[in-house]
């Protein structure tokens, strides 16, 4: 996992694509919400946010 993060950071740094960082963070956050929402009793509360 750390190799992936190092490679991703190296790519963004070399090619000056720092705008990808917020996009990746938002995608990870949405994925975590979907995972935790499906596996816990928080689904009714999460669905009301969207």
Secondary structure elements and pairings:
Layout: H1 2-15, H2 20-39, H3 43-49
Termini, distance in Å? 30 Å
Task: List the total number of helices.
Answer: 3
Number of strands: 0
- The proportion of strand residues reads under 5%
What is the radius of gyration computed over CA atoms, rounded to a whole number of angstroms?
A: 15 Å
Dominant shape: elongated
Mean pLDDT: 85
Structural class: mainly alpha
Helix content: over 70%
Description:
By secondary structure, this protein is mostly helical. It has 3 helices and no strands. Helix 2 packs antiparallel against helix 3. The longest helix has 20 residues, at 20-39. It starts with a helix and ends with a helix. The mean pLDDT is 85.
Provide a quick synopsis of the model:
The chain has 50 residues and is mostly helical. It is 82% helix and 0% strand.
Sum up the structure in keywords.
single chain; 50 residues; mainly alpha
């Amino acid at each position: 996992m750390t190799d992936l993060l190092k490679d991703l950071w190296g790519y963004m740094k070399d090619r000056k694509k720092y705008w990808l960082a917020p996009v990746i963070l938002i995608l990870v956050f949405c994925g975590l919400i979907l995972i935790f929402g499906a596996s816990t009793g928080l689904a009714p509360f999460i669905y009301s946010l969207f």
